[in-house]
Specification:
Shape: elongated
Distance between the termini: 50 Å
Number of helices: 16
Low-confidence stretches: none
Structural class: mainly alpha
Number of strands: 0
Radius of gyration: 26 Å
Helix content: over 70%
Strand content: under 5%
Length: 324
């Protein structure tokens, strides 16, 4: 996967895998039996917990936990005891997430538990901070954070500042860029005039430019740059970004061998972005667009089919312009 050669499993690994599969089958049988019999005892929940920590994608196991927890909460009049039950449930999901951080089912279940309103939201932000240290690009974790800060009423600007702290550590954090775009959409709802929106976008263009100049080969910043372009209506924005792409490419062309190796043999993203921008710019010589796509075809073979398609469209457009 991703260019890594396959390795043959050892006998010990095969044996461990078989033991894990056998343990899973036993736990699954017990959970299904308890679910069918509506057995919501402490022992039944412990068996269930071992199953979801082993494999959190068994939806029936989480559904059982919902029914069991609701039953236990309905039977418990003491508020502190109810909070303890919820605390235990959150611990189960935390254990599952620490072992399987990208599990949709575990994140969804934790969201359901939090919605009961019997736990601390501050604790959720603390847990997310720990999990982001393991995987700061986890889309599910970012989605969950948006849910939590929404419940807490955290100001959008405060969350933008938080994404900035993570981006300062790693500009390649695609999920942080994506979260930033989601936050800006919320911020735009509060802004009535177009000038105020463009002022914010100008600051964002300056921000992402730092990432693009730091590593022109990293696609995360370019995706965010593309998103910004799609939300800007400023008349001279196109020309400004065209100049930036040209400057990046000139920097690469003028670089020494050492610098060229640092930037990458070919920085395809500024070249591709420039081609797209020139295609939408009025009064531009389309021959330059054709030249850009032609070079991308030669230097980025895995995506050659796409470039050839765009190249053909550019050539067709150029021929039509000559006829006119």
């Amino acid at each position: 996967m991703h260019g890594r050669p396959r390795t043959r499993a050892t006998a010990a690994a095969d044996k461990e895998s078989e033991a894990k599969a056998e343990r899973f089958e036993l736990l699954l049988s017990a959970v299904l039996r308890n679910h069918q019999q509506r057995c919501y005892t402490k022992e039944a929940l412990e068996e269930n917990a071992r199953l979801v920590e082993l494999n959190p994608e068994v939806y029936t196991a989480w559904n059982f936990r919902k029914l069991a927890l609701k039953s236990l909460l309905d039977a418990e009049p003491d508020e502190d005891s109810r909070k303890d039950l919820v605390k235990q449930e959150l611990k189960v999901t935390e254990n599952a997430l620490r072992a399987h951080i990208k599990s949709y089912s575990a994140w969804h279940h934790r969201k359901w538990v939090i919605a009961l309103g019997l736990s601390s939201l501050d604790d959720e932000l603390d847990l997310l901070a720990q999990l982001f240290k393991v995987d700061a690009r986890n889309f599910n974790a970012w989605s969950y954070r948006r849910y939590i800060v929404g419940l807490m009423g955290v100001p959008v600007q405060q969350e933008l500042d938080y994404t900035m702290t993570l981006l300062n550590k790693n500009f390649s954090n695609y999920s942080a860029w994506h979260n930033r775009s989601a936050l800006l959409l919320e911020l735009f709802k509060e802004i009535k005039d177009e000038q105020g929106k463009e002022s914010i976008l100008s600051e964002e263009f300056e921000l992402v430019k730092q990432a693009l100049y730091t590593d022109p080969c990293d696609q995360s910043g370019w995706f965010y740059h593309s998103w910004l372009l799609g939300h800007s209506s400023k008349q001279d924005r196109l020309g400004t970004e065209i100049d930036m792409c040209r400057d990046l490419l000139e920097t690469e062309e003028d670089a020494s061998d050492w610098a060229r190796n640092t930037l990458g043999e070919e920085s395809k993203f500024p070249r591709l972005t420039l081609a797209r921008l020139l295609s939408s710019a009025p009064g531009v010589d389309k021959a330059e667009v054709v030249s850009l796509y032609d070079r991308l075809v030669r230097t980025d073979p895995p995506h050659a089919a796409y470039y050839k398609d765009m190249l053909q469209k550019s050539r067709t457009t150029e021929e039509e312009a000559r006829v006119l």
